[in-house]
Amino acid sequence: MRAAWPGGGKEVLDMPMLEVKDLHVHYGVIEAIKGISFEVEQGEVIALIGANGAGKTTTLHTITGLIRPTGGTILFEGRDITRTPGYKIVPMGMAHVPEGRRVFAQLTVLDNLMMGAYTRRDKDEIRETLAMVYERFPRLEERKTQMAGTLSGGEQQMLAMGRALMSRPSLILMDEPSMGLSPIFVNEIFDIIRQVSQSGTTVLLVEQNAKKALSIADRAYVLETGRISLAGDADELMNNEAVKKAYLGE
Amino acid sequence: MSFAAHLISGISLGSVYALIALGYTMVYGIAKMLNFAHGDVIMIGGYVVFVTVSGMGMNPLAGIVVSMAACTVLGVVIERVAYRPLRGASPLAVLITAIGVSYLLQNIALLAFGSDPKAFSNVVTLPNLELFDGQLVIKSVTVVTVAVSVVVMIGLTLFVKKTKIGRAMTAVSEDKGAAQLMGINVNGTIAVTFAIGSSLAALAGVLLCSAYPSLTPYTGSMPGIKAFVAAVFGGIGSIPGAFIGGILLGVIENLSKAYISSQLADAIVFSILIIVLLVKPTGLLGKQVQEKV
Ligand SMILES: Nc1ncnc2c1ncn2[C@@H]1O[C@H](COP(=O)(O)OP(=O)(O)O)[C@@H](O)[C@H]1O
Ligand SMILES: [Mg+2]
Fold this sequence. Notes:
heterodimer, A: about 250 residues, globular, disordered N terminus, B: about 290 residues, two-stranded antiparallel sheet, two-stranded antiparallel ribbon, about 70% helix, binds adenosine-5'-diphosphate, binds magnesium ion
């Protein structure tokens, strides 16, 4: 099976795409992640929700190698990546749209996108992916020669997503893509996440906007001060009283 | 004609500062650290040429290549052993380490070569340039020094802007974490930066010693500090800034020596730096630091 976009070339996996087992992460002596386990199956959209400071960003940073865990294992497509240097994880097929977007302000929009394809070699294929990214984000093409630092927040978010897609990931991690955006942009971003998922890329989505996240997710995990307090189908969680009270503001 | 002569020798000295400042600014721009041992790498570069050319009778060009290679390795080793373990440590710890490395290199040279100045033979053996019926003589080493620094400045600018690894350097300089998320080997990129900076230091060392042929373990110290001033003057992190800063510094220093006082020349140079920084804290071509949203 070959998905047309963007995580092409992946076989159907007979194992979870991502498997996190008993993960512990410390900042100095403080334990931010206290033994969490979860799985992401191929093709799913998984939401990781939780209050500010619950450990969502720490979890994503540990998966992509920006932080080293103090315990536990992380398997990506069955391969142990717990100790793999972060820069070697991208070419395995995992991309990360970081919290706060973190586009390269002093590079042009096009150069930012090309940074996303840094580990790829085939120029024709890169050009093809670029065309697909431009198709999905026409604004980025309009502004390709502009410095990324001059874009609006919503445009920067699109750039950060486009940049991640340039590596043709089979799994994409997104950290609060709707943070600080106007409602129109929030809807647009969630539409795009849905499209990315429909075209065959597995999505692990971290959000404080739990309502939106649960509306597009298949399953979700609720993180509370470093522990998973609830897990289940997104529909179920949406109707869960505790979740409603704590995260949906009902 | 003497003004022109002073100006030209200022540009020549400034070109050496520029070469050193380019190394400073590259390393600062990408690794965000001041490698105060950079000046001493120049001195090591000088000794390598002294040993290979004056001692072993090697062809000067071959000696320069050996010296650049040796300093490249030295720069990468210094980064690996002294600075990489401190990545993420406080800037003060890194600064103190850099000063330590600087003294270490000076003392190694002191042990190996002693403190008496070595007569360095000019490696630029081309004929001098005579203008206006010999009223104005431009030494060939001056011409070569200026040409080398211009070529290096343009080359580095193109390298950073146009090559993949150059753009990776810009990405690393802005945000190491985000760069790593692109699959960029951050440590490797920083090592390449040190390699480039140190090979330029070797080149600067050879040209410096050819113009001022006396080599001691402290030869790199003052030019190193002045080149750092030049880099800050031009806007630290900026490649054209380092070049312009270097040239200006050399010219100001030489004209001060010629027309005001040779004792006060350094004081004047540093006063100008202070004034520039008061008026424009980011230096002549420095970019305003952009806070990320
Ligand atoms: N660099 C850091 N150093 C020390 N503590 C940190 C650091 N980053 C996050 N923390 C702490 O770890 C916990 C989890 O933070 P984070 O993963 O950012 O949460 P979330 O993304 O869910 O808001 C918080 O208590 C936070 O204060
Ligand atoms: Mg967070």
